[in-house]
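Work Package 3 (structural annotation) set out to generate three-dimensional models for the target panel prioritized at the project kickoff. During this period the team completed the workflow that converts sequence records into discrete structure tokens, so that structures can be stored uniformly alongside our sequence database. As a representative example, we reproduce one entry of 362 residues exactly as it appears in the project archive.
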Amino acid sequence: MTGPRVVVGMSGGVDSSVAALLLKEEGYDVIGVTMQIWQSESSAAAERDGGCCGTLAAADAARVADVLDIPHYVMDFRPEFEEHVVRYFVDSYIRGRTPNPCVACNRFVKWEALLDRSLALGAEYIATGHYAGIVKLENGRYSVRNAVTAAKDQTYALYQLTQRQLSHTLMPVGGYTKPEIREIAEKAGLPVASKPDSQEICFIPDDDYGGFIDRYAPGRVPGPGSFVDSGGNILGTHRGITHYTVGQRKHLGLPMGKPVFVTGIDPEKNEVRIGSGDEVFGTELTCDEVNYMAVGEEAFRTGEIRARAKIRYTQRDAVPCTLRREGKLLRCVFDVPVRAITPGQAAVFYEGDHILCGGTIL
């Protein structure tokens, strides 16, 4: 007897391919879907090195589906991706913030848009190849749980998922390490077993964020302005605020005779603030757009809550902190100073092995 139907988002990579394999072996009625979200000549070329957005990815996913003997479809999500990811990315940089496009893509495209279409096809679940897990807590709420391997854990980028989305989600690879996933793929004869991981933002394969924004939004991008120190003294001229982020040290072009870093960006004055390494550290932050995951927001009305925080995707160890709700905002005070608290990035808070909540840093 066929089990529940699940739509697997197949990017053409080894992780999502093994996710489909594992679910089929568990008895699910598996359908593979490759999401067409962004396509250009440059990104098509980048797919040869592991990208996930266009025709080559779809071809790899189709080859895997053929081996697994499951149906495979390509669905066009380019309008949703353009609205919720690309425009958000560009607008954030123009406002002097550093966005996290993978978080937005997960929330609004890979889950919201795909889930709606999948449910319409009679599926009960969607699944991905993320290194994370789903847990239903004693209070009845769902949360995203850490993967078994900290080196590949992707929970940070999933903090915006809603309770409805989590209740219809499966993440079968979160209990494995990357070498184990590749071994499973090789033993099953999957043609992507040794395919390299994607490293770049899929719509900017050359990693030139500023250049992409200049081309995407001509006339809206702030031009050159001043580098200033903490006292407002002018130190030099920057190329435009879209080329910088808090904590940045390289490519500043300032002959200071010592290492200096971006400590802040002021879009109103078109200024990039520069300081020493010590000035990059901070002890607190405030979040808006908070998504309460393991608990509802009412849990914060009675006082402070202890948690651990990550403020960037590449941060391996979460830092102990205290959380306090202030109206619609969430304030976090760290036990120790942390480096490069960056407006626009996500602050994700953990309780035990799962996400408590998270928000966007102001």
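The helical segments are 14-25, 41-47, 55-68, 78-94, 101-120, 163-167, 178-187, 209-216.
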